[in-house]
Amino acid sequence: MPKTKHDRPSYEGSASWTKFKALMENRFGHVIELEPEESWFEWRGHQIHLDSLSPLGPPKGTLVLVHGAGGHGRLLTPLGAVAAEHGWKVLAPDLPGYGLTITRPKWQADYQEWPELVAELAAKEEGPVVLLGMSVGGMTAFRSAQMLPNLGGVIATNLLDMSDPATFKAAARWPWLGALSLQVMKFAPWLMDVVPMPLALVTPLDAMTSDPQLRTWFKRDPLIGARWVMGRFFRSLHQYVAPQSDLALPCPLLLIHPGADEWTPTRVSLRVFDQVSSLKHFQELSNGSHMPAETPAWLELREGVLDFLAKIEGNGHVVNEAQ
User: Considering the entire predicted model, what is its pTM?
Assistant: First the structure.
């Protein structure tokens, strides 16, 4: 990765970011013109990489983008750019262990920090704040929201309760690998903790997209498929202790799920959604893989997000009845 003047890695001008933009344009027709501003901040000894997108005028609110366990914040730029073009400030952190964020020495690869970091970042923003999570980021945003009494809302493309053994196995590249991992966690957690795993081996990146060229990029990119993650991260993801045991939120929830998600089908997210007692709305996209860049899914996702943000703007809540 290229270095900034602070001798830290940068997405700008990198082969990874350049290739992703080209694929999004050539394969899906999505031209990414708005480049995020990159910055860093220290949090619990980590050097957190943060992408920011700013609207032309005063922001209507802040949208915090939450990536999943197979990517990083920069991948959510196409959706962030849409929000920024419609007046919202956008923040997209690389959560510890992923993207360009530099973890503190001897970090224990603890997922518990993910929702805590998102919550602290969101709490510093003025005006309405909405969290938008994709993949595992959907449940991360959900748990962060439970720590934020004044949050405007949560948008999720997936709600994956990885503490549920069935969901954990379904999210693994092969069900038998998920089942084996659960047994190792139970009987030899120390072994699970010390084993580094390439994401392309443990996650079904073939199901990220329907496009073969983008699939290949996901599997080979050094920050995604070729990235190695300690097994303890996945153990801590499965054994995460939520801030509250129920699935109530202090704000509205929009689940806007890809209709052709072969990685985590809609029914997996509905296991969580159906238990949410707060104001909620569910929309299934006409098609769209785990990262829904396909048409018409992308247009439906775009409009669904903008409609939700428009209802949050100015009053802090949406008016839809729970569905």
Answer: 0.93
With both helix axes pointing from N to C terminus, report the angle between 136-145 and 266-273 in degrees, rounded to the nearest 10: 10
Could you tell me the CATH number of the domain that includes residue 76?
3.40.50.1820
Highest mean pLDDT among 125-129, 170-174, 253-257: 253-257
Apex CA 94: angle with CA 92 and CA 100, to 5°? 125
Total domain count for the chain? Answer: 1
Assigned domain for 185 exists:
no
Mean pLDDT (whole number) for 67-75: 95
Q: Strands, E, within 60-175: which ranges?
A: 62-66, 89-93, 129-133, 153-156
Segment 46-63 mean pLDDT: 97
Q: Which residues, 6+ apart, have CB-to-CB distance to 22 below 8 Å?
A: none
Q: Kindly state whether residue 279 falls inside one of the protein's structural domains.
A: yes
- Structural domain of 82: 15-167+249-312
Exposed, middle or buried, 304 (CB in 10 Å: 0-12/13-18/19+)? middle
Query: Which band of pLDDT confidence, cut at 50, 70 and 90, is reported for residue 185?
Result: confident
- Per the domain annotation, does 63 fall within a domain? yes
SS3 assignment for 242-279: CCCCCCCCCCCEEEEECCCCCCCCHHHHHHHHCCCCCC
**Residue 55, number of CB atoms within 10 A of its CB:** 16
Q: For residues 259 and 256, give the distance between their C-alpha atoms in angstroms, rounded to a whole number.
A: 9
Tens of pLDDT, residue by residue over 219-247, are 999 999 999 999 999 999 999 999 888 99
